[in-house]
Design goal:
The chain is mainly alpha-helical and 131 residues long. It has 4 helices and 2 strands. Strands 1-2 form a two-stranded antiparallel ribbon. The longest helix is centred in the first third of the chain and has 29 residues, at 9-37. Bound molecules: zinc ion (2 copies). One zinc ion binds next to strand 2 and helix 2. One zinc ion is lined by residues 60-61, 84, 87-88.
Length: 131
Amino acid sequence: MPSRKPPGSSRLDRIVAEAKKAQQERAHSYREQALKILPWICGRCAREFGRERLRELTVHHKDGNHDNNPPDGSNWELLCVYCHENEHARYEDSKNSGSEPKSKNQQNSGSDPIATHRPLEKLGELLKKKR
Ligand SMILES: [Zn+2]
Ligand SMILES: [Zn+2]
Protein backbone atom coordinates (compact mmCIF):
# COMPACT_ATOMS: atom_id res chain seq x y z
CA MET A 1 0.00 0.00 0.00
CA PRO A 2 1.35 3.42 -0.86
CA SER A 3 1.33 6.09 1.81
CA ARG A 4 -2.09 7.59 2.20
CA LYS A 5 -2.26 11.32 1.84
CA PRO A 6 -5.38 13.16 2.85
CA PRO A 7 -7.13 14.37 -0.28
CA GLY A 8 -6.49 17.98 -1.18
CA SER A 9 -3.42 18.43 0.97
CA SER A 10 -1.03 18.46 -1.97
CA ARG A 11 -3.20 21.04 -3.66
CA LEU A 12 -3.12 23.19 -0.54
CA ASP A 13 0.63 22.73 -0.34
CA ARG A 14 0.93 23.96 -3.88
CA ILE A 15 -1.21 27.00 -3.19
CA VAL A 16 0.85 27.85 -0.12
CA ALA A 17 4.06 27.35 -2.05
CA GLU A 18 2.84 29.53 -4.86
CA ALA A 19 1.77 32.26 -2.46
CA LYS A 20 5.17 32.12 -0.80
CA LYS A 21 6.90 32.27 -4.13
CA ALA A 22 4.80 35.21 -5.24
CA GLN A 23 5.56 37.00 -1.99
CA GLN A 24 9.27 36.34 -2.38
CA GLU A 25 9.22 37.56 -5.94
CA ARG A 26 7.35 40.67 -4.92
CA ALA A 27 9.78 41.28 -2.06
CA HIS A 28 12.63 40.75 -4.47
CA SER A 29 11.17 43.13 -7.00
CA TYR A 30 10.45 45.98 -4.60
CA ARG A 31 13.92 45.63 -3.18
CA GLU A 32 15.37 45.82 -6.67
CA GLN A 33 13.18 48.80 -7.38
CA ALA A 34 14.13 50.55 -4.16
CA LEU A 35 17.83 49.96 -4.78
CA LYS A 36 17.41 51.34 -8.26
CA ILE A 37 15.89 54.66 -7.26
CA LEU A 38 17.29 55.26 -3.78
CA PRO A 39 20.90 55.98 -2.82
CA TRP A 40 22.63 53.04 -1.14
CA ILE A 41 22.83 54.75 2.20
CA CYS A 42 21.26 53.77 5.48
CA GLY A 43 18.56 56.29 6.32
CA ARG A 44 19.43 56.16 10.02
CA CYS A 45 23.17 55.85 10.49
CA ALA A 46 24.05 57.20 7.03
CA ARG A 47 26.42 54.34 6.33
CA GLU A 48 27.17 53.90 2.67
CA PHE A 49 26.98 50.51 1.01
CA GLY A 50 28.77 49.16 -1.99
CA ARG A 51 27.64 46.29 -4.12
CA GLU A 52 29.57 43.72 -2.11
CA ARG A 53 27.78 44.68 1.12
CA LEU A 54 24.44 45.43 -0.40
CA ARG A 55 22.71 42.52 1.30
CA GLU A 56 23.12 44.35 4.59
CA LEU A 57 20.96 47.10 3.24
CA THR A 58 17.26 46.36 3.60
CA VAL A 59 14.05 47.97 2.48
CA HIS A 60 11.91 49.34 5.26
CA HIS A 61 8.30 50.25 4.68
CA LYS A 62 7.57 53.56 6.30
CA ASP A 63 3.94 52.73 6.95
CA GLY A 64 4.75 49.13 7.90
CA ASN A 65 2.67 47.77 5.06
CA HIS A 66 4.76 45.53 2.84
CA ASP A 67 2.04 45.55 0.21
CA ASN A 68 2.21 49.29 -0.17
CA ASN A 69 4.90 49.67 -2.79
CA PRO A 70 4.42 52.85 -4.77
CA PRO A 71 6.83 52.90 -7.72
CA ASP A 72 8.14 56.32 -6.77
CA GLY A 73 9.59 54.80 -3.57
CA SER A 74 7.70 57.12 -1.25
CA ASN A 75 6.97 54.28 1.15
CA TRP A 76 10.48 52.87 1.14
CA GLU A 77 13.45 53.65 3.23
CA LEU A 78 16.78 51.92 2.92
CA LEU A 79 18.11 50.88 6.29
CA CYS A 80 21.05 48.73 7.25
CA VAL A 81 20.03 45.53 9.02
CA TYR A 82 20.96 46.95 12.43
CA CYS A 83 19.01 50.16 12.09
CA HIS A 84 16.14 48.25 10.56
CA GLU A 85 15.99 46.00 13.60
CA ASN A 86 16.12 49.03 15.85
CA GLU A 87 13.36 50.70 13.93
CA HIS A 88 11.06 47.76 14.45
CA ALA A 89 12.09 47.23 18.05
CA ARG A 90 11.20 50.84 18.75
CA TYR A 91 7.83 50.34 17.16
CA GLU A 92 7.22 47.23 19.26
CA ASP A 93 8.20 49.13 22.38
CA SER A 94 5.76 51.93 21.75
CA LYS A 95 3.04 49.39 21.02
CA ASN A 96 3.20 47.66 24.40
CA SER A 97 4.39 50.51 26.54
CA GLY A 98 4.38 49.66 30.22
CA SER A 99 1.89 46.85 29.86
CA GLU A 100 3.93 44.16 31.55
CA PRO A 101 7.17 44.07 33.49
CA LYS A 102 9.90 42.31 31.59
CA SER A 103 11.81 40.84 34.53
CA LYS A 104 10.34 37.68 35.95
CA ASN A 105 11.18 37.26 39.59
CA GLN A 106 11.37 33.62 40.39
CA GLN A 107 10.25 33.23 43.93
CA ASN A 108 10.86 29.81 45.36
CA SER A 109 9.31 30.48 48.72
CA GLY A 110 8.31 27.55 50.90
CA SER A 111 11.01 25.11 49.93
CA ASP A 112 14.45 25.97 51.14
CA PRO A 113 16.54 22.83 51.32
CA ILE A 114 19.35 24.52 53.23
CA ALA A 115 17.09 25.83 55.98
CA THR A 116 15.29 22.54 56.63
CA HIS A 117 18.42 20.43 56.75
CA ARG A 118 20.44 21.40 59.81
CA PRO A 119 23.24 18.95 60.49
CA LEU A 120 24.92 21.28 62.96
CA GLU A 121 21.88 21.39 65.24
CA LYS A 122 21.79 17.61 65.37
CA LEU A 123 25.46 17.58 66.16
CA GLY A 124 24.84 19.97 69.02
CA GLU A 125 22.19 17.68 70.50
CA LEU A 126 24.50 14.69 70.22
CA LEU A 127 27.22 16.58 72.01
CA LYS A 128 24.80 17.55 74.78
CA LYS A 129 23.72 13.94 75.28
CA LYS A 130 27.27 12.73 75.47
CA ARG A 131 28.12 15.20 78.12
ZN1 LIG B 1 22.11 51.96 9.73
ZN1 LIG C 1 10.92 47.58 8.19
